[in-house]
Specification:
This protein has about 300 residues and is α/β, with parallel strands linked by helices. It is built from nine helices and twelve strands. The chain has helices at about 20-30, 45-55, 75-85, 105-115, 135-150, 160-175, 195, 255-275, 285-295, and strands at about 10-15, 35-40, 65-70, 95-100, 125-130, 155-160, 180-185, 200-205, 225-230, 245-250, 250-255, 280-285. It is elongated and about 60 Å long.
C-alpha cells in the first residue's frame, strides 16, 4: 500500500443472522485488507450501510471500498442488492458483488466447465432442478450467450412442478432469448428425469444437497457432458463422483461438485479482486460469468 492509497475495505452484507464464514474467508484470501461483516441485514438497513461507504472517502478513493452480498436466501439477498443500487447517485457509489449461496459463481463455473468440451450452437441442454437458484442462472447464462452469439440452443427446464418450469421459461424469454428454444418439463420423481435427458447433449443437475435427480440408466442416453453441482451424498446424478473433473464414463465427460469447485473458487476470488479496480462495477450472474471466461480463456 502506497502512502496515498487507502486500505481495501470489503463490507459483507448478509440477511442471515451470521454472515457466511465461507464468503469471509474467500474475501481475505482475495486480498481484502479490512473486512466488515454485517448479519441480519434488512432492506431498511441498507441505505445507511451504503452511505457509510460512499461518504467516508474522496471520489478518487471510493474504488478502495466495495460491497459483497451473500446469504442463504437468494430472494432476500437480491432485494438488498436492489436497495443498495438505489442508494447510489452520480459518482457517489462503490462496486458491488452479489453471490447469495454461491449461486452466481457456481452457475458460471458449471457452464464454463461443460463449455470446455462442447460448442453450444445446435445443442440440447437439460437442466434438472432448473427452477432453483443455480439452475435458473445456468439457463440465463446459456440463453444470453446464445443470443449474443446468434446461436441456436434448446434448453429443457426441468422442475418437480410443471408450472414452476413454465414460469422460468417465461422469465428467460422476457429477458431476450432469440435463437433459444425453451422447453418446460415436469420431473416429479427421479425416474421422470430419464426421458427428460433423452437426446440431450449436456445435462446439469442443480438440485438441493443430497437429492438424486438422475437415476441409474442415464449413461445409455450418452450425453456428451454431465455436470452435478451437489457436493453432499447421494450424488445428484447417479454414478458421478464429487471429485470428478472431466472424468470419462462410457461416452460421457463427467464433472462433480468439487471438480467444478476449483474453477468456482478462482472466479469468486477474481471477482473480489476486480471490485477494487473501479467504484462502479456491479457483478451479478452475467458479469461474473464474463470474468470466469477470462480465466478459462
Amino acid at each position: 500500500m502506497t502512502a496515498n492509497s487507502k486500505k481495501r475495505i470489503l463490507v459483507q452484507i448478509d440477511p442471515d443472522a451470521h454472515p457466511s464464514v465461507f464468503d469471509s474467508v474467500v474475501a481475505i484470501d482475495s486480498g481484502v485488507e479490512q473486512l466488515l461483516t454485517h448479519g441480519a441485514v434488512s432492506e431498511d438497513d441498507v441505505t445507511g450501510l451504503v452511505h457509510g461507504c460512499i461518504f467516508t472517502r474522496s471520489i478518487d478513493d471510493l474504488r478502495s471500498t466495495a460491497l459483497f452480498f451473500g446469504g442463504s436466501n437468494v430472494d432476500r439477498t437480491e432485494a438488498l442488492v436492489e436497495k443498495a443500487k438505489s442508494a447510489f447517485f452520480g459518482p457517489m457509489r462503490v462496486s458491488l458483488m452479489s453471490d447469495p449461496n454461491g449461486c452466481n459463481t457456481t452457475a458460471a463455473a458449471a457452464v464454463l466447465s461443460a463449455g470446455k468440451h462442447v460448442s453450444w450452437d445446435g445443442l440440447t441442454v437439460t437442466i434438472l432442478a432448473a427452477t432453483g437458484p443455480v439452475g435458473i442462472r445456468i439457463a440465463q447464462i446459456l440463453a444470453k450467450e446464445a443470443d449474443a452469439s446468434n446461436e441456436t440452443v434448446t434448453i429443457r427446464i426441468c422442475s418437480r412442478k410443471l408450472q414452476r418450469a413454465e414460469e422460468v421459461c417465461r422469465r428467460i424469454a422476457v429477458a431476450g432469448a432469440d435463437g433459444v428454444t425453451l422447453e418446460p418439463l415436469e420431473t416429479a420423481e427421479a425416474k421422470d428425469a430419464l426421458p427428460a435427458v433423452d437426446g440431450s447433449d449436456v445435462v446439469f443437475a442443480a438440485g438441493a444437497a443430497g437429492i438424486e435427480l438422475l437415476p441409474e440408466g442415464w449413461l445409455e442416453k450418452a450425453p456428451k457432458v454431465v455436470v452435478d453441482v451437489n457436493a453432499v451424498p447421494p450424488a445428484g446424478i447417479h454414478g458421478v463422483e464429487v471429485m470428478d473433473k472431466a472424468e470419462t464414463r462410457g461416452e460421457t465427460i463427467c464433472y462433480g461438485a468439487i471438480g467444478v469447485g476449483g474453477l468456482k473458487m478462482k472466479i469468486h476470488r477474481k471477482c473480489i479482486e476486480s471490485l477494487f479496480e473501479s467504484n462502479d462495477s456491479v457483478l451479478e450472474v452475467h458479469q461474473i460469468h464474463a470474468i470466469g471466461k477470462t480465466i478459462v480463456g
